[in-house]
Structure formats: structure tokens, C-alpha cells
Write a structure and sequence with these properties.
78% of the residues lie in helices and 0% in strands. The chain is an all-alpha fold. The chain has one domain. The chain starts with a helix and ends with a helix.
Length: 127
């Protein structure tokens, strides 16, 4: 079961990150994207008050599974873990963290902008 959960969290969390970054592109997914970006920001900044900036429950659960499997979890950042795993490099934490915050801000701005524009167009067509 732990092996399955390790794969599940890897796929789920990576998919969520991909959706957060790109879900604003398609009209049908814009509201869901805005919701997942909002949940991510709330987790990072509100739960982060108690658990540390950038806190993510999915990361914590995945790390618990990996520890139970005896696998390394030597980074607190899931994105750093993902970047390092996918590239085989050891990218500096500061670079990964900065890029992560910049990309979240860009995705949130794009999601808000495209959602507002879509709503305005929809409203003007009804008039």
C-alpha cells in the first residue's frame, strides 16, 4: 500500500502543480484553476503561519509515506524534490523557491485576468 501511495502522491501532486500553472488557459477549467490556486495560496500563507511558509499538506503526507518506505526526504520543498528528481541535478533551494513563488504569482494573475475577461465577454454577449 505504501508503494501505491508514494506513486499516487507523486502523480497527484505533480498534476496539481501542472494544473495550477496551466489551468487558466482553458475556459472550462478557469474556475477550478482559480480555486486550486486559492487553496494553494491559503495553504502556503495561512497554514504557513503555524507550519512554516509554503506549507503543503500533500507534501507532508507524501514525506510520511516516503519515510515509512525508507526513502530520502532531505528537502522540505516538494518542488525542489521534483526538479532534482526530474533533472538529476541539485538545484539551489533559493532558486527553486524563488521560481516557485514567481510562477504561482504569474499563474494566479493569469487565472484572475482570464476569468474576469471571460466573465465580461459572456456578460456582454447576453446584453
Amino acid at each position: 500500500m505504501l508503494g501505491f501511495l508514494n506513486i499516487f502522491f507523486f502523480v497527484f501532486h505533480t498534476g496539481l502543480i501542472a494544473f495550477n500553472l496551466s489551468g487558466w488557459v482553458w475556459k472550462r477549467t478557469r474556475l477550478a484553476n482559480l480555486a486550486t490556486l486559492g487553496a494553494t495560496a491559503m495553504s502556503w500563507f495561512v497554514l504557513g503561519i503555524w507550519y512554516g511558509f509554503g506549507y503543503c499538506p500533500s507534501t507532508e503526507w507524501h514525506w510520511r509515506v516516503r519515510e515509512a518506505l525508507g526513502l530520502s526526504t532531505d528537502t522540505g520543498s516538494y518542488v525542489k524534490f521534483l526538479v532534482d528528481t526530474m533533472t538529476g541535478l541539485d538545484v539551489k533551494t533559493e532558486i527553486v523557491d524563488s521560481a516557485t513563488v514567481i510562477l504561482l504569482a504569474f499563474a494566479l494573475a493569469a487565472s484572475i485576468f482570464t476569468t474576469v475577461i471571460s466573465r465580461r465577454k459572456k456578460r456582454s454577449l447576453k446584453e
